[in-house]
Amino acid sequence: MAKNFNNFTNRILLRLGESNDSEIVTASLAAFKLIFIPIATMSDKKTSKKQKQYAIKRDFITESVALAGYIAITGAIKNNLTAPICSKYYKEKAKELSKQNKLDINSSDFNFLSNINPKTIKKNTKNIPLSTDEKSHINQLENLAKKFSLQNPKNLYTNTKKTISHICVCALALTIIPLITNKILEIYSKNNPDKENKQKTPESPYKTDIKKPISLTNFAQKVKIGGLNAINY
Amino acid sequence: MPLIINAITSPTAANFVQNSTAQVLSEGCLKAIGRPTFTLMDRTASKEERKYSATKELLYQSLSMLSYFLLIFPFKNNDFKFLKFFDCFKNSDISKAKTKAEFDEIFKKLPEGELKTKVKGAKELMTILASGIILTIVAPQIVNKIIHPIMNKEKNKNSLDKNI
Question: pLDDT averaged over chain B?
């Protein structure tokens, strides 16, 4: 048991030491908040029950969406976008080098840098076995990167992945998560119309439920003075 | 386009986002803007409920960022003292360091390898745990105490405006 726990801790330490991607930190904080923030709201004794219920419901939905979103959406985006961006980086650098007259547009190096296969970069970084063609592709890329002082494909992939994951987390935190929460609350209120209407009833005892304007004649018809209607008095 | 590609692929940006503190601070600041705005836009709840929730979220995010900023750096300066609680560092010199300078010196001398990666990982793990405790246990206690005077002030202001 203790050995298993030690192995588990070692794996976590190695993972965090090698690559501390944004989604790991933000997702673990979302998990913390999912438990502790509703508890803190519940312990607030000075707020009305309805306000607390809404705040707890909102916090719970937001943090659940955040937890799922940070892991799933960020993971999917960085897995699919990193390699094409790396390939684009080499293409842009080839253009830059040609503008600086360091690389001829018609040369084979220019063509090579402009047409890097994203899949090969991804496979190379993830240590997936490469075919002979792919190996020579990577070797040539590494040589050119050294020659023109560009980023090494493995480093480039790792750096880009980290930055993309942080951009994703920021975009999710700023707009996407609150937007999804609003949509979920909208669907919830449509499916539970009675509960929501009850919640919307005014709290103040001074507010009335008058919907139609009262005319003085109508009012006089209803009021009795000495057993007679006020209108006949 | 080339500017965006350069920014995304830059090693400086990658180093910045690799830091847990920077990640928490940037995400928290964006949350402080995004969440209250969308809460106020939510038409499924009454105005009072939305106002309470949005004010609470704005206060919570801003105060938690402030308390995080104030507490995390002193913690980070002393986090090496907790390394002795990890089994994997018990026999290593790194857990025997008594001051930050001593720890930094031993850490610098460590060869690139599993042990150095584990030390980095342990430091990040401790930062994550400390962030969790600061943001979810300390900050809400402060927010709960501050939110009512602020909400009452706002209520009084509104009622004065209506009376005028």
Answer: 82
The two three-digit tokens of residue B5, written as one number = 């590609």
Question: Which residues in chain B (65-84) have CB-CB distances under 8 A to chain A?
Answer: none
In single-letter form, the type of residue at position A6 comes to N
How high is the pLDDT of residue A220?
62
ipTM: 0.74
How many whole angstroms from its chain centre is CA A185?
A: 17
| Contact flag A179-B18 (C-beta cutoff 8 Å) | no
Cα B61 to Cα A104, A171, B27, B135, distances in angstroms: 53, 17, 10, 9
Measured CA to CA, the distance from residue A110 to residue A119 in angstroms comes to: 19
Average pLDDT over residues A94-119: 85
Residue B43 — very low, low, confident or very high, per pLDDT cuts 50/70/90? confident
Whats the size of chain A, residue-wise?
Answer: 233
Has residue A55 got a pLDDT over 80?
A: yes
| Higher-pLDDT residue of A218, B144 | B144
Task: Please answer yes or no on whether A32 and B132 come within 8 Å at the CB atom.
Answer: yes
CB contact under 8 A, A199 and B45: yes
The confidence band for B154, taking pLDDT boundaries of 50, 70 and 90, is low
Which of A90-123 are b and which e, b meaning 16 or more Cβ less than 10 Å from the residue's Cβ?
bbbbbbebbeeeebeeeeebbeebbebebebbbb
Token readout for B51 is 């106002």
- Set of chain B residues whose Cβ sits within 8 Å of the Cβ of A157: none
**How many separate helices (H) and strands (E) can be counted in chain B?**
7, 0
Which of A64-68, A81-85, A210-214 bottoms out in mean pLDDT, i.e. has the lowest? A210-214
* Interface check B92 vs A, CB under 8 A: no
Closest A-chain CA to B55: A55
Q: How do the domains of chain B map onto residue ranges?
A: 2-163
Question: The tokens 């969440």 sit on which residue?
Answer: B35
Q: Give CA–CA dist A202/A208, Å, rounded.
A: 9
Nearest to B38 among A167, A178, A189 (CB): A178
Residue A86: per-residue pLDDT? 92
